[in-house]
Amino acid sequence: MTPNELKAYVDAAMKHHDTLAVLVLILVPVISIVGSVITAYLKEEGENSATKEDVGVITKQIESSKKITWGGQMVWVASPLRTSKGFHLSKNSKN
Description:
Layout: H1 3-64, E1 67-70, E2 73-76, H2 80-84
């Protein structure tokens, strides 16, 4: 291998090295930004899903504690929501 051939190989390697460095300098920030945006989106989506489930549970508890008729008299049906708040109602209550 002659010195000129060696110089040509080194120059070609250095040229590719510079291209790779520029590519890395561009891709690393872009990938970081995209990753943080996706992470924030998925976190918000998870919180929305949990809120939707919580609303569903609360709605079911409220629906199960609505007034019903018992022998012509309006009474409350005790539910876990109400009993957990300290209300102890029976079907003979007038609330």
